[in-house]
Design goal:
Layout: E1 6-11, H1 15-25, E2 31-37, H2 40-50, E3 54-57, H3 66-76, E4 81-86, H4 91-98, E5 104-107, H5 111-123, E6 128-129, H6 138-141, H7 145-151, H8 155-165, E7 170-177, E8 182-189, H9 193-199, E9 201-203, H10 209-216, E10 220-222, H11 233-241, E11 246-253, E12 259-267, H12 275-296
Parallel strand pairs: 1-2, 1-3, 3-4, 4-5, 5-6
Antiparallel strand pairs: 7-8, 7-12, 8-9, 10-11, 11-12
């Protein structure tokens, strides 16, 4: 009996690459290309609609770079395997790409002989990295609390608990990328495309609640988005269109004092959380951070 075909979405802004991949994958009867996409935002939309088994993803894309695309796709189509295919040979970029939860990283100069082996490897549940790249060993990467945070399977569960315990309507968890000095959404509940596009990456000069909490290294509560002076008109508009009227952002800080992320809860009514609800947030944050610390602590002894 014939096996079901593996459905592949190809994302790249270079049209000849699409033809090359179509020819190469067409030689394998179990692989079927179901879509060809040329920019980042469309890739996210198509991934949500098509739920492909495998996505071949470039990094240098219009509208949204491939690493951000991968982060979003992992939220909306978590079963999709992601194989980066790019000209970029930087080990730092490769590690950043793989930190999204992607399954492989293929350098295009190796593509003629490596595309099919790479595709088959990730479909079998193995990680593929082009032989010419020398990345840090996964065990070394996994010992740092910040990286444990990015890869933690309990982030969505943590966010759900915080939303419930603080009587919120929506929420986000962000990872702090210390190299770039930015917060990036790694889990969210209740938000649409405009909000996620606007707040996906937040820097220190971004006039919003989570940025203020990042800069002050303490929780910031906004009880009325419509009247809050710390917000830019642009961020205020995005929040109001998302039906957010109050926000709190709480930094996630490891024992050494290093910021590793942010949890924010959002309310469809002015006022926001009461002090007892904020205590609930603090208790859940402490439990979550202790769990991350326990995952990394064996390597420290």
């Amino acid at each position: 009996m014939a096996m079901p075909q593996i459905r592949v979405l190809v994302v790249d802004d270079y049209e000849p690459w699409h033809g090359f991949v179509s020819t190469l994958l067409g030689k394998h009867p179990d692989l079927k290309i179901i879509g060809q996409v040329f920019d980042g935002l469309e890739a996210v939309q198509q991934a949500e609609q098509l739920q492909p088994d495998l996505i071949l993803l470039d990094i240098g894309l219009p509208t949204l770079n491939g690493i951000e695309v991968a982060r979003r796709i992992k939220k909306i189509s978590p079963a999709s395997k992601i194989l980066f295919a790019t000209e970029n040979r930087s080990c730092d970029i490769a590690e950043d790409a793989l930190s999204t939860g992607a399954d492989g990283y293929l350098v295009k100069s190796d593509a003629a002989k490596e595309v099919l082996p790479a595709v088959l490897a990730v479909l079998e549940g193995n990680r593929f990295v082009s032989p010419g790249l020398s990345l840090q060993a996964p065990s070394a990467l996994g010992n740092h609390p910040s990286l444990q945070f990015v890869h933690s399977a309990s982030i969505s569960e943590f966010l759900g608990s915080v939303i419930h315990a603080s009587a919120a309507d929506y929420g986000t968890v962000q990872f702090f990328d210390s190299k770039r000095g930015e917060l990036r959404i790694v889990a969210q509940h209740g938000f649409g495309a405009e909000f996620l596009d606007y707040f996906d990456t937040v820097h220190s000069d971004h006039l919003c609640v989570c940025s203020a909490a990042m800069n002050r290294s303490t929780r910031v509560v906004v009880t009325d988005v419509d009247a809050e002076p710390l917000l830019s008109n642009e961020s205020r508009g995005v929040l109001l269109r998302a039906k957010v009227r109050a926000v709190q952002s709480t930094p996630l800080v490891e024992r050494s004092g290093k910021l590793i992320g942010m949890v924010s809860t959002h309310y469809g009514r002015p006022g926001g959380p009461t002090p007892d609800l904020l205590q609930n947030v603090d208790d859940l944050v402490a439990t979550f951070l202790a769990k991350l610390d326990s995952l990394s602590s064996p390597s420290l002894h």
